[in-house]
Amino acid sequence: MSELFDAVDALIASRSPLPPPAERKRLRQAHGLTLDEVAAALQVRRATVSGWEAGKTEPRPPERDAYARMLKQLAHLYPAGAPVPPEDTAIPETPAVPAAPAPSAVEPAQARSAPTGPAAEPANTALRPAAPAAVPRPAATTRPTSRRPAARKAAPAGTTEAGTDPRFENGPLAVVDVDADGQVLAYCVGGLVLDVTAKSLPALVEWTLGEGRLGQPKLSGPGKDADPLIVLTEAACEHYGLPTTLTKEERLAGRIPEGHKVIKQLTRANWQLTKRGFGPWARIYRPAQGSGRSCVQLCIPSWDALDARHWADAAQLPPAELARLLGTYAARVMTPRGSTAVTGLELMTALHPPTRASEPDADGRRHSEHNPGSLGKDPVDCAPCEAPDGHPLLADLPRFHQRTTAEVLVEEAYDWARPLTDAECLRPHLVGIDVNMAFAAGANGLNVGLGAPTHVKNPVFDAKLPGSWLVDLSHVDLSRVKVAKDKWVDLDGELLPSPFTPKGEHPTGPAWYATPTVAYAVELGYDVTPIEAYVRHDNGRYLDAWYNRLRDAYLATMADLGVGADLPPEEFLAAMDGYRQRDPQLAIVVSAIKATVKGGIGKLRERPRGEGWKPGQPWRALARPTWRPDIRAAVISRTRINMHRKIVKHAAFTGQYPVAILSDCAVYASDGPSPLDFLPYRGGKPLPGGFKLGVNPGLVKHEGTQSVLWGEGVREQFNAPGLNLARHIKDGTVTDQDTGE
Q1: Which stretches of 288-403 are DSSP H helices?
Q2: Quick check: 186 and 194 in contact, CB under 8 A?
Q3: Residue-averaged pLDDT of the chain
Q4: pLDDT, tens digit (0-9, with 9 covering 90-100), for 708-732
Q5: Burial bucket for residue 547 (CB in 10 Å: 0-12, 13-18, 19+)
Q6: Distance between CA atoms of residues 458 and 532, nearest Å
Q7: What is the pLDDT of residue 101?
């Protein structure tokens, strides 16, 4: 009978009466409770309580009964119509606590004293409680309502919480939206929501630079503070007179027309746009006055600013959640400056600014001078062999000339596959392993050129000297290689890709290679005799700080998702299983960090992007000091060599060879479905110098498992014996558009 009573009690609790959503919020605020306090008491997320108060969701048992009980008690204390504590004594909202641990760097301080100085005095900036996840869109004619600022607890003069810069106390960015009442709201990191008084886009820029207190401190001593980022939702675009989407012509042009009314408004207010114009990532600025900067970065997700390949469905997130996602990325990487590729490149410059202030001269004045270890402020010409087709250095070549590897440096990632042997066909599984942050690991500790190349004939190879070398490596025999000092091993060279070519083909004569590739030939035990070279005597480990920043961002976010460093192999594989579902938004941050690595390296050799360019003419990217195809080649070379070195160590120890490699993924035939079924762990220890499971850059994770029958079947189905199985090992999906030929 007691079970029946319990069932009846549960049924009653599931229908516990609740006051209307607005009344729920009134009662909570009347008692001075924050969303966090209520959420903690009910053991739910802050956003859940916010949704209940907005009427977007309704509580379920067992939380519903407890929530109804709390509201009932508050209703006795604060009947409808009873006075509520005035705003100047109300307890301000505390930052949101996300489901997974978020970095303290993205939490804005809630208790501040107003910093001194005319630029730091907010007029109508109000601290508001976080709005619900989904904000209703206003009618076009709705007039914004006015609100008085909510008071903040005073802090001692000149102090901030958690070391936050008082100039940027509201965080690096804000997502601007419009609520049902027509009020413009700025959703900042940590759950902070600000009233925005600006009625036009120029006024919004002024508000951002003044009252908004948005931005991010510089990442390097001689660097510059990051400009504030404003993300405009569709409702905000409508409010400020911008289209919610771009036409086909505007998408192709990457911008709205110069004659658009909003651009005219900006011009009348003496604001300027960069040469890219007003596109998905628009930069609005006024020329710098002294050391002061007046610049705001705009991001418009509905114009495809957030590429779904890297940001997944971030563009569809509610404003508060998008602010949390982008804020986490900004705190751990940097405030986005454009696509992930653009941000990856900008991060290099932010960590190694081109100039610094000199020591005071005789008059006590400082001047701008070259910052050692940087790429400088002026671009340098690449070597002819490093120039991509169409470069001005190649203008004298015949129009349809096809350069050979003896004329052009070709350092690209692996795309190699081979037929399975009879023994491999008898094994049931194909298992893919993927190198974490492979290109970041390739950049770690890499010595790269900082200045222009020097051309030398018949040089003596120096593995410490970055550059491009014309050398014949056809004599390197993979059937017998050195794997340690004075230790040679015999291998089946036919089952290995060449380390010197992206397709794994054996070189047939002289070709251009980056330093890491030639150094690996020496490491394998073979002499090299370069014919000529373009070397860079001014060099350094330019990418180390860049690697460290991105590595730390990746590891911190993976830890938030439950995948910690130094986990034992079995625990690591278990932690990686379904990690994206633990917090989909943080999983998007992981994807964006990875794309920042790959895109930043790729951007070092950016190709022409329309704009009427013709072969032989310079294009815009060539004017950047960070247009450095030699650095890109060195990173890719080292990444490919790192993969080959592990493959050789694995083959020498186990007799197993990969059947396919695609960039940072290698596929092996295995007796079991797990990487542990073929990786040689002994007593929990991996093979020294071989593949090791783990989350750190350079270590590997499980990419996917398919059957050997699947592999042979898709190759036969699409009549593609060279189909790269590594491309499809993750989910097994193969289309007829991708035959591997």
Answers
A1: 308-311, 319-332, 340-351
A2: yes
A3: 87
A4: 999 999 999 999 999 999 999 999 9
A5: buried
A6: 5
A7: 38
